[in-house]
Amino acid sequence: MWGRLAKWVMWLLVWSMRLTVWPYSRILSFFRKNTPLPAIDNNLLLHSATSLADKIRNREIGCEDVVQAYIARIKAVNPQLNCVVQDRFEQALQEARMVDLQLAAGTMTEERMKEERPLLGVPITVKESIAIKGMSHNSGRVKPSQRVATEDASFVRRLKEAGCIPLLVSNTPEVCMCWETFNNVTGRTNNPYDTRRTPGGSSGGEAALLGAGASVMGLASDIGGSGRLPALYCGVYGHKPTPGYIGIDGHIPVSEDESWGNFFSIAPMCRYAEDLPLFLQAISDPAKRQNLRLKQPVDLKTIKIFYIEEEPSILSDRVHPEIKTSMRQAVAHFANKFNIIAQEVKIKELEEVYQVAGVVMLRMKSCNSVYQKTEDNPSEWNSVLLTYIKYIFGLTNHTHPPLIYGPIKKYADSISDKEFSEMLELKRTLMQKFEEMLGDDGVFLYPTFNDLANYHQQFYYKLLNISYFTLFNLIELPACSCPTGLAKDGRPVGFQVAANKHQDRLVFAFAKELESAFGGWAPPPSILPPEKETDPKHTMDKVTTQG
Q1: How far from chain centre, in Å, is Cα 455?
Q2: Which residue of 87, 389, 411, 423 could cross-link 356, Cys pair, CB 3.0 to 4.6 Å?
Q3: How far apart are the first and last CA of the chain?
């Protein structure tokens, strides 16, 4: 593994990139205008998915009214955010009317509906890398153009069976290979809290819609923080589940490597913590989901809390002070309310995660990329050098981030078997340490990332910090990025909560308590009525309902 000299060389390379990119991005941000989003004018948008499902089942509200409210909100904010790749608004309204007719007919009891169709009538948005029959499924690529999914992914089918109504597919970077969200098909997606900034990636379209109050549930994916980083940047929840429960079909990119399903996961995203267990229950394989015990209550007084405020690596940057503050406030809250004394731990092996996680992921076989010669054979590549030369001279439609995959994939494949075995041994050591530490009653608090939402294009020089979120892909643990409010400059703040395998329920219970204590999703101030800008937890009674 890397010696100190190699690490310092990498650090210097990234700092040279910082000196180039930072002035450029700052100049662009100076000339770009931050465009505040329009205010929410319908209180249906401020209910959780759980609440909406209950009220639709009880016929307190109409499903068509809910779907129409979200369609109107999406149309209101998309000009500023640019999240939508393709919508299915007309079909969604037709499906909503059918739900209302079904409920009026009274053919199913409320209890049976709650058990068999727990999300009946709830609208959902979906990342464009995920297959919804009849919808764009190109993962931000120019070619193949106009690729349409011929069938639903298995987990999309389960959501529909649970009663969800898909509204659209949302923007993603090309082949999901960037931690910002832009491509040459749909363009650049903006952050709802500051449109000069990125919503993160690769699930940036979903995160931006959720943060703007234009979605209540977002179906995304996570292979290296792709669901959790955007959740941090847009102030919502993004969960990477325990591997093996959901399925990996119907997603681009995909890999034929046997370890892909351990690293990659479909990722539920939402605005309200109480929706996390319901969401994961709905998308999980019915034959396996009982092992998650998502309906079993968690006694928070019995949990153990471990935390690390900062990664022990010379490569990573300092953690933003308001992220550290939010973690300390959470630790203090659980000490005061539940008499739980959190333990700050040191895990030396974390300083190697940047390299190990990257190489393990990059060595996976037959993953979709911009280099593949044909759609059906991701293993057969065009020349990396020639493709880069074409990019330099403007002779290709590719964006730059997915091109980086080529040379670093070549580097990862060139690593000796002996060195790779050492990396796998470090992975096993980390997995064992976390398993022993967490047991079946522990949670681990860790920054989702070292910083808050950056201006567009600044992520290039933040790449040495990705081990904050790739850690949990590497060691195959469930982890959720949880919002804890807004920083002084208005950007969302939060951190990750992780637990042992199959203990997603502990993460969700902890997230719900954090939400109760610190407010969870704090809407961008511009979308709330003026008198409630500083108190986003209590807005529903003050917002006028339309329709």
Answers
A1: 18
A2: 423
A3: 62
Q: If we measure between CA atoms, which residue out of 306, 305, 310 comes closest to residue 337?
A: 305
Query: By residue range, what is the domain housing residue 352?
Result: 4-363+415-542
Q: Taking CA 492 as the corner, what is the angle to CA 178 and CA 537, rounded to the nearest 5 degrees?
A: 135
User: b/e per residue, 129-143, with b = 16+ CB within 10 A?
Assistant: bbbbbebbbbbbbee
As beta bridge partners, residue 169 has: 86, 126
Domain total for the chain? 1
Cβ atoms of 484 and 514 within 8 Å: the answer is yes
- Residue 147 within a domain: yes
Residues 6+ apart with CB under 8 A from 106: none
Helices 275-283, 504-518: axis angle to 10 degrees equals: 150
Q: Which residues, 6+ apart, have CB-to-CB distance to 20 below 8 Å? A: none
Catalytic residue among 127, 160, 409, 427: 127
Instruction: Give which of 94, 226, 248 is closest to 170, Cα–Cα.
Output: 226
| pLDDT exceeds cutoff 70 at 545 | no
Task: Give the 3-state secondary structure percentages of the chain, helix then strand then coil, rounded to 5.
Answer: 45, 15, 40
Tokens representing 141 are: 């690529």
Instruction: Tell whether 267 is covered by a domain.
Output: yes
CA angle 276, 278, 282 (to 5 degrees): 115
- 122 token code pair: 């709830």
CATH for 172: 3.90.1300.10
Amino acid at 206: E
Indicate whether 497 belongs to any domain.
yes
Helix (H, G, I), strand (E, B) or coil at 217: strand
Does 114 participate in catalysis according to the annotation?
Answer: no
Is 25 assigned a catalytic role? no
Sheet of 123-127, strands arranged across: 84-87, 165-170, 123-127, 217-222, 265-270, 237-240, 479-486, 492-499, 442-446, 304-307, 343-344
Asked whether residue 378 is domain-assigned, the answer is no
Quick check: 538 pLDDT over 60? Answer: no
How far is the C-alpha of 96 from the C-alpha of 270, rounded, in Å?
21
282-301 pLDDT, tens digit each: 999 999 999 999 999 999 99
Q: What is the pLDDT of residue 30?
A: 76
From 51, 129, 136, 202, the catalytic residue: 202
Rounded mean pLDDT, 326-332: 99
pTM greater than 0.70 (yes/no): yes
DSSP string, 25-70: HHHHHHHS---PPPPP--GGGGS-HHHHHHHHHTTSS-HHHHHHHH
* Dist. CA 113–CA 149, nearest whole Å: 29
Q: Find the catalytic residue in 25, 48, 226, 284.
A: 226
Confidence of residue 421 (pLDDT cuts 50, 70, 90): very high
Active site includes 139?
no
Of 75-84, 195-204, 308-317, 379-388, the range with the lowest mean pLDDT is: 308-317
Calculate the average pLDDT of the chain. 93
Residues 305 and 343: beta-carbon distance below 8 Å: yes
